[in-house]
Amino acid sequence: MEEINPCQSFSVGELEIQPFAVPHDAREPVQFVFQAGKKRLGVLTDAGHITPHIADSLSGVSALVLECNHDADMLANGSYPPGLKKRVGGQYGHLENRQAASLLKLMDVSGLRHVIAAHLSQKNNKPELARNALAHALDCEVEWIEVACQQDGFGWRHIE
């Protein structure tokens, strides 16, 4: 078993994998950009807030799986105990819909062909809220944004 250095890319066959550090309440959390040829897939879940390093790491991706964990109002008014609300909504918790949307404004999205909202809380978010936030940030049709289901995930996508 090898340790992943969050500052160093590595390869698995022809797939280049670039880890990048994220702020989350775990030990040395990282997320990834996967590259095959000129196509790049970014995956960002389990991040408490957006950093310039995250935006730089994900700029220019062809596809993005992006955490939209909660809606701030639903979390604040929901049934979670105060400590859990603070953890989820804190700097090392999970991305709120508007935070995820703000990331898109910081990135180079000129080559972006697919966006999938992921890691949605079943109690503190709704797919339409996540889709609307991301679509507004990208100035695109809401239908263009897909949502991963906790039970079924999402289907395969072909990136042109």
Short summary of the structure?
This protein has 5 helices and 7 strands; from the N terminus they run E-E-E-E-H-E-H-H-H-E-H-E. By secondary structure, the protein is α/β, with parallel strands linked by helices. It has a single domain, classed as Ribonuclease Z/Hydroxyacylglutathione hydrolase-like (Metallo-beta-lactamase, Chain A).
For this entry, give a set of tags.
160 residues; alpha/beta; Metallo-beta-lactamase, Chain A; seven-stranded mixed sheet; 5 helices; globular
Walk me through the topology.
Layout lengths: L9 E3 L2 E7 L8 E7 L2 E6 L7 H7 L4 E5 L4 H6 L4 H8 L7 H10 L7 E5 L8 H12 L6 E3 L13
Parallel strand pairs: 4-5, 5-6, 6-7
Antiparallel strand pairs: 1-2, 2-3, 3-4
Structure description:
The chain has helices spanning 52-58, 72-77, 82-89, 97-106, 127-138; strands at 10-12, 15-21, 30-36, 39-44, 63-67, 114-118, 145-147. It is of the alpha/beta class and 160 residues long. It has a single domain (10-147), classed as Metallo-beta-lactamase, Chain A (4-Layer Sandwich), CATH 3.60.15. It has a 7-stranded mixed beta sheet. Helix 4 packs parallel to helix 5 (127-138). The chain is globular, with a radius of gyration of 15 Å. The termini are far apart.
Name the helicity range: 25-40%
Q: What is the CATH third-level topology name?
A: Metallo-beta-lactamase, Chain A
Give the domain tally: 1
**Quaternary structure:** single chain
Second rung of CATH, namely the architecture: 4-Layer Sandwich
Poorly predicted runs: none
Q: Helices and strands, in N-to-C order?
A: EEEEHEHHHEHE
Query: What integer is the average pLDDT?
Result: 95
Helical region count? 5
How far the N terminus sits from the C terminus, by CA atoms, comes to 34 Å
Structure summary, number of beta strands: 7
Q: What is the rounded Rg?
A: 15 Å
Main structural class: alpha/beta
Corresponding CATH superfamily: Ribonuclease Z/Hydroxyacylglutathione hydrolase-like
